[in-house]
Amino acid sequence: MKKNKTLLIHLGLFIATVIATTLTGMEWVAGKSILVDGLDLDGLLKGFQWYTLPFLGFLTVHEFGHYFVARAKKINVTLPYYIPFWFGIISSFGTMGAFIRIKDQIKDRLGYFDVGIAGPLVGFVVALGVLIYGYANLPGHEFVFDIHPEYAQYGAEYGQYAYEGRDDILAFRLGDSLLSGWIADYFADSSLLPHPNELAHYPFILAGFLGLFFTALNLMPIGQLDGGHILFALIGEKRFNQVSPVLFTIFVFYAGLGFYTIDELNQSIFEEGYEAVLYFGLYIYFIQLCFSKISKNRQTNWILTLVVVLVQLLTTKVFPGVEGYSGFLAFAFLLGRILGVYHPPVQNNQPLGLGRIILGWLSLLIFVLCFSPYPFF
Q1: 70 has a pLDDT exceeding 70
Q2: I need a labelling partner for 320 at 20 to 30 A (CA). Which of 65, 186, 216, 309 fits?
């Protein structure tokens, strides 16, 4: 009975995520919302075929990569839990991803390595194929004109005129990684490339880009992310638990860089007084929460927090205009406060073979190629 109930939960979440991503796909592809424009069967079909299938396909392949390897190694693991995420009133991707839960304690480095690397590698292949297909099969500019009929008057040069003098456009752009930028340059017909503001409407490109982006997040060599499991298996527990907090500190520094500058802080305190001081204090406290499990000594965590914030402010003073990507702050909180930046020990520390070592460093190269410092703007 309990097993049947659990299966219903998995199935229910999957169906909900299919619906959510289909509605999201309709918004991105057709430029229509079911809440505003009502039921549009053609838009829903396009959303399902052009967005749900490639993007949810990537997530499914990724999670089942973990699942089947875990089962092959006789590790007790759950089916994927999908997380639907759609509100209709704000732009979303239809899902916050999926995860499997490992019920057994993995006792050796090989286990962590094999289970950790399986998902990102097979998911990467799918995302790469989807993105290449999207750029290699760009439709004509009529595709954009169907979404924005008012652009048709400008023809293929709409990007030079459609946005001029308009401050009501909430542009949503995809920030290329090294790999996605190369794919666009190599596979796309430059005469058919849309304006960057419209690129997110191209579903295979959006789905492929998101696939590479989530692959990069999973391959970050920190804590118990997939990349953390891989690096842990490559360099061992002692060195990993020295490297991981350093990488995490750099990540937090980058995420919050430019969130406050010295000049802006001084001006806001002058104009708003205690309210500005309060907000700045909340920012410092948030950074402290990210670092709250770096050390068992709270004083050490607070010192690290203040040093990072101070260096952020000084960096923006020395290099005006430099900034990180504040969108990563939520992920930094998830890593630092919930998942943790250290890796649990194993009973069997046998080294990896040459094949796994090559594959492991290759996966970390994939992280570098897929990581976008400004993914959405």
Answers
A1: yes
A2: 216
